[in-house]
């Protein structure tokens, strides 16, 4: 029998998993992570429809998508790379902001690495400064997660304590 893993922390669940709801998403979690959500309500207002045994048509199910295939990540020290490229072109943050139609304060925060640039801003910066800010995420890093358990919600989300 395969052990079930917690969808938040990735730990093996001994016994039956707890089914909880966090922001309208239902998850099977361990007892220690169950405090982050509310127990799932089994009652549904709409009765489940009966599906006929024989169908007049064949339903073609889509192939499962590899969500990690197109995943890219920012290069380490992206802020320094942006600043160096901007300064090499002799531009101030304000001048660069005018050229790519973004606020200088946003560019300063990105250069300090206080925030990560959204894809649209990242593409504008790459085009204007003629640099590459992304790196193809290696499959082993993405799928390994922590201790080889696989990627879990806890690896990518920060959980706010109540």
* CATH homology group of the largest domain: lambda repressor-like DNA-binding domains
Q: How many discrete structural domains?
A: 2
Strand order across the largest sheet: 4-3-5
**What is the chain-wise order of helices and strands?**
EEEEEEHHHHEHH
CATH class call of the largest domain: Mainly Alpha
**Percent of residues in helices:** 25-40%
Beta-strand content estimate: 5-15%
Number of strands: 7
- The average pLDDT is 78
Tell the overall outline.
elongated
Number of helices, counting only DSSP H or I runs of 4 residues or more: 6
CATH architecture of the largest domain: Orthogonal Bundle
Structural class, please?
alpha+beta
CATH topology of the largest domain: 434 Repressor (Amino-terminal Domain)
The N- and C-terminal alpha carbons lie at a distance of: 36 Å
**Residue ranges: pLDDT <50 for 5 or more in a row?**
none
Q: Main beta sheet: strand number and arrangement?
A: 3 strands, antiparallel
The radius of gyration computed from the alpha-carbon positions, rounded to a whole number of angstroms, is 23 Å
